[in-house]
From TrEMBL:
Pfam families: Zn_ribbon_15. This is Zinc-ribbon 15 domain-containing protein. Residues 23-107 form the Zinc-ribbon domain. The lineage of its organism: Eukaryota, Viridiplantae, Streptophyta, Embryophyta, Tracheophyta. It comes from Quercus lobata.
Length: 110
């Protein structure tokens, strides 16, 4: 007897709790804080759904779910002034004095 099984478990967003709550750990694009559910599919038809244990971060760009504790800080709003870009490190997003050539926190060139 031969049994062919097509299906699996995947995660799906159930509800967005806070949009733009952090940044993705892979692609650095904005990520949302969401409640998610796991879905068992057989032959591409949802058969069983159950909720996730705790809220998670979800990146809409690369479809990645990851724990909230791993998220990067949310992206800063963009402004037209060049002063806002100079005052913060572009890698670790910490404030840096304008006369510095390197970030004192992460060591990257400014």
């Amino acid at each position: 007897m031969f049994f062919f099984f097509v299906g699996g478990v995947e995660q799906q967003v159930r509800q967005v709790l806070r949009s733009g709550a952090g940044r993705c750990i892979v692609c650095k694009s904005p990520a949302d804080l969401v409640e998610y559910e796991k879905v068992l599919k057989l032959f591409f038809v949802p058969v069983w759904r159950w909720p996730g244990k705790e809220p998670s971060m979800y990146c809409r760009n690369c479809n990645l779910f990851f724990p909230q504790s791993y998220s990067l800080p949310p992206p800063r709003p963009t402004t037209d002034s060049a002063l806002a870009e100079v005052d913060r490190c572009r890698f670790c997003d910490r404030p840096v004095e304008p006369e510095f050539s390197f970030c004192p926190f992460c060591g990257s060139a400014l």
